[in-house]
């Protein structure tokens, strides 16, 4: 395992910059907020640590790209700031996210709540969920997984057409696997930053994506014509687990981060690190490093402490209003569907440590 370690000076400049305008802008954060952000360059910080590399297939090794410090972000033409008229993030669900409509609707509400806390100060709205057929996208059965895939670019065009007037961005989410073009195997997601739209699939985040019964269903599907969208009716969706919810929240916030113009982070362990494979995505934390946090704060203008508190509230608010849900195989029994937040406990402890630093 290798560690990407930057000097204290490099991290300080990446965060604060040497540009006098940006330095004085940094000084407008209150002392407590600066104490927290300055942890970025404290070598002994237990809040922020270096990026670790575990294999040659990790993102930084396989996709060399220029790093982006705060000043570069600030000066980038691709930087996007929500205007007062366009302060809503819209989420469009495509196909079901859970095995029943009710589970699916709960799931999307959990994601909405998480995004609202994460992008604190913006409004997150849900567009009416649509079936795959509504998008008129191309689809295929993947040769190696034997699973259905939908064409990411076609979905982006659909989302662009549906983008509401007050939208900062529209993000589509689906449990169906995606492909960007015929020659590619798959893609986790795709976005058009200029159009402010993105589509992300959580299909490969389910624990049973490579499950064989699912596979044989795909083989049968291959015989169907490619404009018969009925293949998506009752199509497999992964079981909703805490780890699936965590991965979905992580992907969604990382990808929306890109829409603001945040590039992949190469400074510290951070949500905005690139990831090439699931194991690397799992290693990536849910939190932003101070450099990326400053970028997002600059775009949205939130209060750092209030944002952390909102995230804690989302984690704590697990089952207070749990709805009665009818499970798939029974129409008589109903079960509680509490938000599965077990996997977020570590993240909560981390936020509490941050709050302790700012409230000291
Ligand atoms: Zn990314
Ligand atoms: Zn970062």
From TrEMBL:
Domain of life the protein comes from: Eukaryota
Keyword terms: Hydrolase, Metal-binding, Metalloprotease, Protease, Zinc
MF terms (GO), sorted A to Z: metal ion binding; metallopeptidase activity
Cofactor: Zn(2+)
GO biological process: proteolysis
CDD domains, A to Z: Peptidase_M54 (cd11375)
InterPro entries assigned: Archaemetzincin, MetalloPept_cat_dom_sf, Pept_M54_archaemetzincn
Cited PANTHER family: ARCHAEMETZINCIN-2, ARCHAEMETZINCIN-2-RELATED
Family, per entry: Belongs to the peptidase M54 family.
Function noted in UniProt: Probable zinc metalloprotease.
UniProt protein name: Archaemetzincin-2
Protein's organism: Molossus molossus (Pallas' mastiff bat)
